[in-house]
Amino acid sequence: MPRYTPEQLRIRNQSVWTKVQIILAPIQFLVFLGGVAVTVLYSLGTIENFVWVTWAIFFKTLFFIVLFVTGAIWEKEVFGMWVFSPEFFWEDVGSTIAIAVHFLYFIFAAMNVSEKELVWVAYAAYFTYIANAAQYLVRIYLEKRNEARLKAAGMI
């Protein structure tokens, strides 16, 4: 079911925040790949210094926060709400869960949880990011199909 009205599509396509998201999302994916690589290499014993795992999840969390904030600005511009607009509700829920799991890493680290357990929390954070990113990719695909239908019908 399409979630953008023709007017919302126009706003989305003209928004500087759409461009910001298009630039930042692939960078976040590269940071994710680096973080997973560092965490796997630590798990395999190739990297011995655990601080690299923490720095990797730190930068991944930082990018996630930047994308969430710029996404909230975008959502306000397109849908009129900062977060949890009806049209974008589940994407926001997914992002909130993923950010919470990323933050959980630092909460557990502050509680002196073992490195072995922190590695699993890092993997959980990366998994929630992938699940959330997949949700966005499906949405983009479906909305591009809807946009093509609206163009063919002369509605935009």
Describe this entry's structure for a reader.
With 156 residues, the chain is mainly α. The chain has one domain. It has helices at residues 6-14, 16-43, 51-79, 89-110, 115-152. Helix 2 runs antiparallel to helix 5 and helix 3 (51-79) packs antiparallel against helix 4. The protein starts with 5 loop residues before the first helix and ends with a helix. The model has no long low-confidence stretch (mean pLDDT 92).
Q: How are the elements arranged and paired?
A:
Elements lengths: L5 H9 L1 H28 L7 H29 L9 H22 L4 H38 L4
Share of helix, binned? over 70%
- So how many helices? 5
The parts where pLDDT drops under 50 for at least 5 residues are none
Beta fraction of the residues? Answer: under 5%
**What is the chain-wise order of helices and strands?**
HHHHH
Number of domains: 1
- Describe the sheet with the most strands: none
Radius of gyration: 18 Å
- Going by helix content, strand content and strand pairing, the class is mainly alpha
Mean of all residue-level pLDDT scores? 92
End-to-end Cα distance: 17 Å
Number of strands: 0
Anisotropy-based shape: elongated
List the keywords.
single chain, 156 residues, mainly alpha, 5 helices, 81% helix, elongated
Précis, in short:
The chain contains 5 helices and no strands. It is an all-alpha fold.
